[in-house]
Design goal:
Blueprint: E1 3-15, H1 24-35, E2 57-69, E3 73-77, H2 84-91, E4 99-104, E5 108-111, H3 124-134, H4 139-153, H5 168-181, E6 186-189, H6 198-213, E7 217-221, H7 225-231, E8 234-239, E9 242-248, H8 249-261, E10 266-268, E11 280-288, E12 297-299, E13 304-312, E14 317-327, E15 330-336, E16 341-343, E17 347-355, E18 363-373, E19 379-393
Parallel strand pairs: 3-7, 3-8, 5-6, 6-7, 12-19
Antiparallel strand pairs: 1-2, 1-4, 8-9, 10-11, 11-13, 13-17, 14-15, 14-16, 14-18, 18-19
Helix pairs in contact: 3-4, 3-5, 4-5
């Protein structure tokens, strides 16, 4: 198998803080001292210079090495600040590495930010030709693909409008269409696809999958583990600039999510600033598994228990609790306590909602919490937006509604239902 990208001990260092803390003369003196292997001339008296001072510096990448074969789709995952975007910028030659070596076989098309390579004063049409020329395409090659690019981007009405007047969604549609249709040997895509709507994201994932199936290389950064598992056969995990895992995509995404799952799925308030009124205060919202362990990441096959803990300050207070499940800005569903029960005594109470396994689809969910009375005049005691959030993913390692189907399953819920097959009599 031919190697498309080879990354050998690549590092990238940045200076923190504002520019101008020292003069150019001082910086040159420090640099010249390092070249001559002399002590740091700006070191304080009593300081020991070990030759590895990192005052005001940070390693965005540190000794990263891996290789990608032709036709392979590689996912790059990690927390915010792990070095994912920096790695793509180094590979795309947007910035130079501080150390190490990169070998690339073929032409790279990069989509790192909204409108990468676009000039805001030029029209969409002009930017297609400009971007194609930057990628090394001839005018004839660009013209041949022009109609297909415009059709994919769905900006036909605005193709002769300056792109500075485009929305961010229109920008990314056109930018991705150009990068995907000008036949690069290597496509590099950052999380920028999150700007588009859900239908466009599915369209882009399909195009990247098609690109990889044609023997071209795809590097894909995303926080959507389901998208990584669908598109990529392999993934690498970065943490604080270092590559800590490399392997099959389901294994690496599971490792990443296992780390994220260690985060607590509990949000608490002190009694003095807790949401609510004098009659009732919400003290805690928690998300737990069936072992009563709080966490923020769940497999689709796990039951999820949501606990609301609140203090009732008046006797005989009658109300009910409700939860709204929000994903991608859409209300997936709501759940309310079936009866408006009376809490006869003041004190601390807990209401628990069980979300059964195989109900929610792969996504991130935010919970709106409401505690209210609807008997007579409706009164809200608690109305909390984005009370807490959690993530649901499918590792594809166990039975789920997906089965062995690896492509996207649309919808805000995804129940595991029974299918039967029978041959009709002749």
């Amino acid at each position: 198998m031919t190697v498309s990208i080879s990354v050998e001990h690549v590092s990238k260092q940045y200076r923190l803080g504002a520019i101008g803390n020292r003069t150019l003369y001082e910086d040159l003196n420090r640099w010249w001292a390092r070249v001559r292997r002399r002590p740091d001339p700006l070191a304080k008296i009593g300081d020991v210079d070990h030759g590895n001072r990192t005052d005001g510096l940070i390693w965005a990448l540190k000794d990263v090495s891996f290789a990608v074969d032709e036709g392979q789709a590689l996912g790059i995952i990690g927390r915010n600040g792990a070095g994912k975007s920096t790695l793509l910028k180094v590979l795309s030659k947007v910035t130079a590495p501080s150390g190490g070596r990169i070998k690339v076989r073929g032409r790279i098309a990069s989509l790192l930010e909204v409108g990468t390579g676009f000039h805001p004063e030029l029209t969409g049409r002009e930017n297609i030709y400009l971007n194609g020329a930057i990628l090394g395409m001839t005018r004839r090659e660009i013209a041949k693909k022009f109609d297909e690019i415009v059709s994919f981007s769905e900006v036909e009405k605005f193709v002769d409008t300056p792109v500075k007047r485009y929305s961010s969604g229109m920008y990314v549609r056109l930018a991705f269409a150009v990068a995907a249709h000008l036949d690069p040997e290597i496509m590099v895509v950052d999380e920028v696809l999150a700007v588009g709507d859900a239908a466009f994201q599915r369209k882009c994932l399909g195009k990247m999958s098609e690109t990889a199936s044609q023997g071209r290389t795809v590097l894909f950064v995303s926080h959507n583990m389901a998208a990584i598992n669908r598109l990529c056969s392999r993934a690498v995990l970065l943490d604080k600039g270092e590559l800590i895992a490399d392997g099959a995509a389901p294994e690496i995404t599971a490792k990443y999510l296992a780390g994220a799952a260690e985060e607590s799925g509990v949000r608490q308030w002190e009694a003095g600033n807790a949401p609510g009124t004098n009659e009732l205060r919400l003290l805690e919202v928690g998300i737990f598994d069936e072992q009563n362990k709080s966490k923020a990441v769940f497999e689709v096959g796990e039951d999820i228990f949501i606990k609301l803990t609140y203090r009732v300050n008046e006797s005989n207070l009658r109300f009910r609790c409700a939860l709204n499940f929000i994903t991608q800005g859409v209300l997936a569903f709501s759940s309310v306590e079936p009866t408006e029960a009376t809490r006869e005594k003041s004190g601390v109470y807990t209401s628990v909602l069980k979300v059964p396994a195989h109900l929610l689809t792969e996504s991130e969910y935010a919970l709106n919490v409401s505690i209210f009375s609807s008997a007579g005049a409706k009164k809200h005691y608690v109305n909390l937006r984005d009370g807490i959030s959690f993530q649901v993913y499918d590792s594809m390692m166990a039975l789920s509604a997906r089965g062995d189907y690896s492509q996207n399953l649309a919808g805000v819920v995804r129940p595991l239902l029974n299918w039967t097959i029978a041959q009709n009599p002749i």
